[in-house]
Amino acid sequence: MLDRLVPSAASYSGDVDQLILLTTWIVGAWFIAAEAMFFWLMFKFRAKDGVKAQYITGKEKHLKAWINIPHGLVLMFDVVLIVAAIRVWVLIKQTLPPADRTVRVMSQQWAWTFQDPGADGQLDTPDDIRTTDKLHIEVGKTYHFLLESKDVLHSFFVPAFRMKHDAVPGRTYTGWFKATKTGDYDISCAEICGVGHGVMGADLVIDTPENFQAWVTQNTPETALASTDGTDMSASTDSTSATAGQQ
Amino acid sequence: MANHADAHADEIGSGHHGHHEEPGFIKKYLWSTDHKMIGFQYMFTGMAMALLGAFMAYVFRMQLAFPGNPVPGFGVVSPGEYNALITNHGSIMIFWVAMPVLIAGFGNYLIPLMIGADDMVFPRLNRLSFQMFALSVVILIASLVVQNGGFGGAWTSYPPLSANPDYNLTPWGASLWLLAVAVEFVAFLLGGINFIVTTMNSRAPGMKAFDVPILVWTIVIASILFMASVGPLVAGAVMLLFDQLIGTSFFNPNKGGDPILWQHLFWFFGHPEVYVVMLPAMGIVAEVITVFARKKMFAYKTVIYTIIATGVLSFFVWAHHQFVAGIDPRMANVFTVTTVLISIPIAEMLFVYIATLYGGSIRFSTPMLWALGFIAEFLIGGVTGIYLGASGADIHFHDTYFVVAHFHYTFFPIAIIAVMAGVTFWFPKMFGRYMNEFWGKVHFWGTMIPFNCIFIPLFILGAAGEHRRIFDYHNFPHLGAQWMQDMRIFATVSLLVMLAFQLIFLINFIVSMFAGKKAPKNPWKANTLEWTADSPPPHGNWPELPTCYRGPYEYSVPGRADDFWPQNEKA
Q: How is B440-463 classified by DSSP, letter by letter?
C-alpha cells in the first residue's frame, strides 16, 4: 500500500508496510463500524413529533453487552497489533545482523557527511571515502551505520527504507539496513535542527556491485593510494575521534 | 479566621447579602474575583490568542503552498521566521488557547454554577491565576518581537538546539518563550488547585460524587493530572533556562549533561497534557449530547471510571514520543503496550457516547451539531494514533506530516469543535441571549468540511515521507513532486476557506451578545444546576444556593410530564 506513495528499497521496509496495512485493516474496520453505528443512531433516533426518548440507564444487561463486547474485541485486536508492532520493531531496532560493510553517518548543522570504509573495508583508515550530502551504498549488502551528531539533535530518515533514528551529540548509535533496489533516494533530517533544517537533505545512491566498486576505485583519496597499507590506522582513528570529541 | 471569613464574604457575598454596590470598570472587568468574570477573561484572552495562532497557520501554510512568494499581510517568509511561526503556532494553540479556554475558561465559569456554589473557594487565588496568565501572554508576545526574532526550536524545545544560542540563533526569543511557558504553568496550577478544592468542598447540599456532572469530573481529573505532571516540566524548564543563561550543563552532552533527559521531562508532562485538554472537551460533549438527545447518559459510572483509567494510564505512555530518539530500544516495547492499551478507555468512552444516542429524541441544534461533529472527527484522531503507538510503524511515521495530521484530528476537535459546542450551548446562560441558529449552522459546515480537506491530504503526504518543519519541500527531490505540491496547495486553500468562515462566528458571537433573541433561564430544558440561575447569573449566582436531589442526567424519566428533571427540583 505504502509503496505506491514512496518506493520500498530495504529488506525490512516490506515488513513495515505490512504492519501498516494490518493496522489499516483493523482500525479501518473499527472506524467504519463505529461511524456507521453513529450515523445510523443519529438518523434513527432523530426527534419525531410525539415520540418521547427512552429512559435507559446503561445498567441493563442486554444493553451493557453493546459496550462490553466491543471492549473485549478492542483488547483482542490491541494484542494482535502489539505483537505485530513489536516484531517489526525488534527486527529493525533490536537485532544487528553481521555487517558486510560499516559506514559512519555524521550530522551537523546543516549537512550530512558520510564516511565509507573504502577498498579495505575498514573504517578510519586512510582509504576511507568521505562524502558530503551523498551516501553511496551497494545493493544486497548488509550495512551497519554509526550515527553521530556534532552539535544538536538531528534525525537520519530514509523514507524508502522506512527507517529513522535520531542522532544525539555525545552518543554513537549503531543501526543497520540492507538495500534491495538500486536507484536514487532521499535522505532527510527529521528532527528540527535550526534555521537550515529545511535544506538538510542528502542523496542516497544505491549501486549495483559493479558500479559500486567503480565508485570506490574512482574516489579513493590519493593520499591513501600513496601510502602502502593501513599502517597509520591508529593515528587516523585518534584524529577522527578527536574531531568527534571537539565540539 | 474571622478576618478571613469576612474577606471572603466581602468578595463574593454582595449577591446574596442584600447590599449591592456596582463595582467600577476596573474592579468589575480587570480586578474581579468573580469566577464568571475570570472565566470570561480566560476565554476572551484564549480567543484572541486563537486569532494570533490562526494567523501564524495562515502565513506558514501560504509559504508551503507557494514557497518564496510574499504572503499577503506578512511578506516573504525566511527559514528562521518559518521556524518561529510553527513553534509559536503550536505553543499558542495548546498552551494559550486549549488550556485557557477549555480548563480555565469553562472551568471557572461552570464549576461553581454546576455544583451550586456562589464562587470558587479561593477567589483571590483565582484572580492571581489569571494575572499570572496575562503576564505569560505579555512575555510570549515579547518573545516574538525581540531582537533576532521568536524562538524557532519547535514547541517541544529540544536541547541542545534550544539550550544554546549559537545553535538556535535566538537568545532572547528562546529564553522568553521558555519563561512564558513556565509562568503560564504556575497560573494553571493555581487555577487547578482551586477547581479541585472547590469541587471537593463547595458542592450543593445533597450532591454526592456521582451526582456531579461529567464536565466537572473531567475538569477536576484534568487538574489533578496537570498538577501531578507539571512539576517535572517546570523543573526541566528552569534547568533549561539555567543552561541558556548561566551556563549550566544539565542538557549539554559536551559537559556531561544529557539532552534526552529533557525529552523525558517534557513528555512526562506533555502526554498527560493531551488528556488534560481532551477530558474537558469530552465533558462538554457529554453535557450537550444528553440534553439534545433527551437521554440519560448511558452508563454514567462507566464514563467516570474510563476518565480515571485514561488519566492513570496517561502517565505511562510518554516515551512513545521518543521511540527513535535514542532511548533504549527495549523500552519501546513497554511503551507500545501501554500506548496501544490506552485505546481501550478512550474507545469505551466513545462507545458510551454513541450508545447514549440510542433511544433518544435527537434535536440537531447548533451545539448538538458541534458535539456530534466532535465524536465523528475525534474517532479519526483516535484510530490514527494506533499507527503511531505501534513502534514498528512509528519508525516510518515519526516526525512526518502523518503525526501532524493525527494530532490535529485530536486537538482541533478538542480546542475548536468541543469549544464551539460549549460556547453555543452556554451562550444563553453567559449573556442571556441566543446565538443565531442559521449562521451557527453555516459556521458549523463551513468549519467541518474545510477542516477535513486540510488534514486528510496531510496524512497522505506524511505517509509518503514528508517530514515536519520544512519551509520549502522543493529542497528534497522526492518531496518536491507535483502531486505532493498540489496536495499542499489544496490544504492551504481549504485553510483559507475555513478561516473565512470563522468571521461568521465572530460576527454572530458579537452581534448576538448585544442584540440576540432574549433567552429564558433554561432554554434547552437541561437538568444541571447552572440552568436554574438567572441568565446571566449575578455576582453570587443565586439569591439562595440550590439543593441537589438527583443525578444530572435524568431525562425522559417515565411517568413524568416533562422530559427533564432539574437536579434541584424536589421529588
A: HHHHHHHHHHHHHHHHHHHHHHHH
Superfamily of domain B34-532: Cytochrome c oxidase-like, subunit I domain (1.20.210.10)
CA–CA distance, B313 with B272 (Å, rounded to integer): 9
Maximum C-alpha span of chain B: 75
Domain boundaries, chain B: 34-532
Nearest to B469 among A166, A192, A201 (CB): A192
Contact assessment for residue A139 and residue A207, using Cβ atoms and an 8 Å cutoff: yes
Query: What letter does residue A229 receive in the DSSP assignment?
Result: S
Stated pTM of the model: 0.93
What distance in Å separates residue A214's CA from the closest CA in chain B? 25
CA distance A234 to A228: 15
Give the 3-state DSSP-derived string for B327-368, with helices as H, strands as E and coil as C.
CCHHHHHHHHHHHHHCHHHHHHHHHHHHHHCCCCCECCCHHH
ipTM: 0.91
**d(C-alpha B364, C-alpha B115), whole Å:** 27
Residues A201, A133: Cα–Cα separation, whole Å: 7
Pairing mode, if any, of strands A101-108 and A111-116? antiparallel
Q: Residues B548, B529: contact at Cβ < 8 Å?
A: yes
B contacts of A151 (beta carbons < 8 Å)? 160, 167
Give the pLDDT score at A189. 95
| CATH number for region A101-245 | 2.60.40.420
Q: Is the Cβ–Cβ distance between A204 and A158 less than 8 Å? A: yes
What are the tens digits of pLDDT across the range B470-516?
999 999 989 999 999 999 999 999 999 999 999 999 999 999 999 99
Partner residue opposite B337 with nearest CB, options A46, A82, A151: A82
Retrieve residue B229's grid coordinates. Answer: 505532571
